[in-house]
Amino acid sequence: MAQQRNEPHRTSSDAPRSVHRGKELGRLLSALTAAETNRPAVVLVEGTTGVGKTTLLGEVADAARARGFQVAGAATSTLDGFMSFSVVRQLFENLTAGPEAGVLESILGVDGQPEAGNRTAAGLDEPATHQTYHELYRLVSGLADRGPVCFVVDDLQWADASSLQWLNYLMRRATKLPLAVLLSCTTGIYPADPLQIAEMQIYATRVRIGGLTADEVSTFAEPVLGSRPEPEAVTALHAATGGNPLLLHSLLETTGEFSVQEIPSSYGVEELGESVLARLHGEPEPLLRLARTIAVVEPPDLGLAAEVAGMTVPEATDGADRLTRMGLLTGAAKPAFTHSVFTDAITSSITRAVRDDLHARAAASLHASGARAALVARHVQCTSAKLGRWAADALHRAADQLLHDGDATTAASFLTRALQEHVPAELRTKLLVKLGHAESFFDPYQAATHLKQALEDIEEPELLLDVTSLLSRTLCLDGRYEDARAALSESIARMCASAPEFSAQLRLALRVTLPTEQSEQSEEPDATPDRVAVDWRRRDARGRGLAALVAEDLSNRGEDLTTSREAALTALSAGAVSIMHDPQRMMAAINSLIRTNELDLALRYSSEAILEAHRQKLDLVFVLGHTLRSRVHFHRGALAQAVVDARLALAKAHRMNLHQRHPGRIWPMDALLSALLHLGDVEAARELVEPIGLTSPLPNSWHHTSLLQGRGHLRMRLGDDAGALTDHLECGRRLKSWGAPGPAVLPWRSYAAVAHLHLGQSLEAVQLALEELELAKKWASAPSLARAMLTVGMATGGAAALPWLMEAEHVLRNTQALLLRATVLVELGTTRWRHGQQKLAREELAQAKVAAERCGSLPLLTKLAELPAEAVGRSGAGPAAPVSVSAGSPLTPQEHRVASLVATGSSNDEVARKLSVSRRAVEFHLTHVYRKLGIQRRTQLAAMFHSTGSSR
User: What is the helix (H) or strand (E) element at residue 43, kind and residue range?
Assistant: First the structure.
């Protein structure tokens, strides 16, 4: 039977219909029932080659049609992996007849060329996968309005990456559509995209098909043999084939009348392939040539098969009919072998040179007929023959589409192959640029190598700007800062006179992304953001990236909060998804929202980035997204959530094997350190920084400098005030020398002022506090102003501190900076109490207690516990004593178990092992234990348990 274009093929050698698969068939039919009630269902049928998956899917597809479903099918092959959305096109091509066909082409493109709207001079268009997924989903939704839809995809293991990603997107998105998705996947074959297949297995109901039992083999064999086989024959057949229907059917047909002794002891896929080859080698040479062509080229029609095989169409038609009668081919309309076993056997029987020649002939024929670039390119990719400029052009256009659709790996392989052709220097440069762009998504080292090669031959300023920007970002993300600085500086020098506006953009990138001493920075007017104001407000791809740089530069300098916020929102105007291909710019934009106190927006965009990074398997974006969200939670006072996000980011960075100095490891470490210290878990914070040391010098990078301030805070908590001051002042020295004095970058002056106070250096503390205040007034962000006023009040001391603290509290009233507000309230209430304003103090300390408890800040709660009982509304005349662990204890049973083991001297790792939980869980429980019991150290916990006898 000829294979229909929109349904998976059924093999003549596959199992007959309704053969002993009643249970599996029932589970698939139940998916149709669920879809009819607007409950989308996904079923994944898994089994070895020839076990009957295709037949089963075919039966369910027929049942779906009978029940009024709109059924669309796709059968994949090994060549599908080279074409983006190959499976999706098959699914929709017959469901979207008429006007809807044009809709599909407008979504996926006609000739493999993405739209030029978001393209730069280098052709570095933004991946538009999210938009494409959404538009395809809308198409499905429109079809579902007409009636239930059933998608059937056979041999999912060979599906292209773009289609797999969209199917996973569809499974997550379709929650109330009348939709059934039926899939099959052959086990034992390494899939084209194992991660996408693994995700699909999570969402789908998995149906595993095994071989037939001995009784089922007997029933299966009876119609083939014309009589029921003897028990001994059944046993031998079952032992030889494992009950595999394809192998069993083939063995029965080739054996015919047989005795038990004639049944081979083992008959598997390899033996089946050999039997097919033996049959073909007995046929005329033209038929064998046609079979090889069909197996290797997988032609869409017989015309291409005939041309590649060197036959006339009538000759090819006769040959296809002969192969069909032999049970090997589905038919002449769309020639394909009835099973992949036959295709694999024929393909592996011929030499690489023959396969190369067949693919080369197919590519040339398709090119001559004006076929889509993707169709031509997949054959060029499979041959090492030198074909010329037209082959490189086809690969180039196909790679463009693949990049646009989010498949950077396959795009890079196409571009690498294109560079093997003899092409003009201009095209070679374009190919190198595009290859570097593709590799920047998964191999920054190779990306930098190819981009450097391309830069050697680029003279056009705009192209030089785009390639240099991409190269510098790639080098920075690979931790090669000096190489990035050299690339930017060289291009700035090349463009300084000929293209000052582009030179200004590179100067801005240099200043923002790489720590640069002010003496090294040009004071020319073109180095300021004013020269690029028009460009960043354009909202195109380059404009949004530039806007992110402007936003961070202004916040670094502490100038013009309004414009910084506008630039950050412009950078994110198309969503975090649109800027995720450039993690540095994404982080700059969201970080600027945090600095401008737009915490809700920062939370929204960081969450969007995390979700999309998970879907697209963008590990570095996942790390940075969780780090940014941890920062947002920290500023909002959600310290426990900040710890969770930071630990998720750090765990992913470890799994990525990023080197110790990579920003993907340092940024989440910095976020986690801040959250742990404000929770009061000093021990966990100290363990965190052990790899870098408490006194070792840290590299001169933005991320290490941020960590330097966190380490200074830790040293202060450990009682090393002089060491803390050293770290904070070094942090400030760096930022000032880099032209980043803004108080929203890092409040190092406030931390250094506190260290000065601890050391009895009040004059130095006041000077730093007032300097911070002047800069905060210029920046005009409520949290920055409030922190500076808090520091001035603390440095001033006595009754003179009250106006500063009152103003700080007033500034924070309508903000989301809960942790900072709790800190201000504790200081204000304490100061009032000590100066006789008991009534106001009680009100503010009550608010402080509520805020500190919401934040889970043990240091603040400890400060409150040190005040007289009447100040914070506690009963009793004495100071609040730690709560003992006994009847009525505030601890949960699990917290009590953790506390008991810690009190007896067990380390966190030992506790985790004894309770069969993770180390992270132990740390979380200990944080809650310390907070609830009003203690800070393990020794206090041990003493408490010893005094109450609760350690058992």
Answer: strand 41-47
CA proximity to 501, closest of 470, 464, 471: 464
Position 127 scores a pLDDT of 59
Residue 239, phi then psi, degrees to nearest 5: -65, -35
Assess contact for 464 and 432: CB atoms under 8 A. no
Q: Residue 939, Cβ neighbours under 10 Å: how many?
A: 10
- Tell me: the pLDDT tens digits for 898-915? 888 887 778 888 887 777
d(CA 165, CA 169): 6
Cβ atoms of 129 and 88 closer than 8 Å: no
- Cα-atom radius of gyration of the chain, to the nearest Å? 34
Tokens of 363: 């590519």
Higher pLDDT, 51 or 754: 754
- Residue 826: which of 853, 861, 784 has the closest Cα? 861
Nearest to 754 by CA among 709, 724, 714: 724
Q: How many Å apart are CA 461 and CA 473, to the nearest integer?
A: 18
Phi, psi of 206 (to 5 degrees): -95, 130
CA dihedral for 870, 872, 875, 877, sign (positive or negative): negative
C-alpha–C-alpha distance, residues 689 and 693, integer Å? 6
> For residue range 321-373, what is the model confidence (pLDDT) as tens digits?
999 988 888 877 788 898 888 999 999 999 999 999 999 999 999 999 999 99
Q: Using DSSP, state whether 768 is helix, strand or coil.
A: helix
Whether the pLDDT of residue 885 is over 50: the answer is: no
Question: pLDDT tens across 536-592, in order?
Answer: 887 788 888 899 999 999 999 999 999 999 999 999 998 888 888 888 899 999 999
Residue 625 token pair = 């997204």
Single-letter residue type at 206: R
Residue 818: what residue type?
A: L
User: Which three-class secondary structure state does DSSP give residue 256?
Assistant: coil
- On whether the CB atoms of residues 190 and 159 are closer than 8 A, the answer is no
* Torsions phi, psi for 747 (to 5 deg): -80, 55
Of 196, 155, 162, 154, residue with least CA distance to 84: 162
Place of tokens 């280098």: 122
Please give the full DSSP string across 64-95, using - where no structure is assigned: HHHTT-EEEEEE--GGGGGSTTHHHHHHHHTT
Tokens of 829: 């209430």
The Cα 417–Cα 404 span in angstroms is 19
Closest CA to 926 of 603, 680, 655, 667: 680
Q: Angle at Cα 489 formed by Cα 485 and Cα 495, nearest 5°?
A: 150
E-strand stretches of 130-264? 149-154, 179-186, 205-208
For the chain, the straight-line distance linking the first and the last C-alpha, in angstroms and rounded, comes to: 76
Amino acid making up residue 661: R
DSSP state of 309: H
pTM score above 0.85: no
Roughly what angle, to the nearest 10 degrees, separates helices 619-636 and 639-655? 160
> Rounded to whole angstroms, how far apart are CA atoms 929 and 899?
7
Q: Rounded mean pLDDT of the chain?
A: 86
Q: What is the C-alpha separation between 159 and 181, in angstroms, rounded? A: 15
Which single residue is written with the structure tokens 């916040």? 555
**Whether the predicted pLDDT of 880 surpasses 50:** no
* The pairing of beta strand 41-47 with beta strand 205-208: parallel
Of 499, 589, 489, 591, the residue nearest 543 (C-alpha): 589
| Higher pLDDT pick, 568 / 223 | 568
Average pLDDT over residues 613-635: 91
Residue type, 654: H
For residue 654, the tally of other CB atoms under 10 A from its CB is 12
Spatial separation of the C-alpha atoms in residues 521 and 621, rounded to whole Å: 30
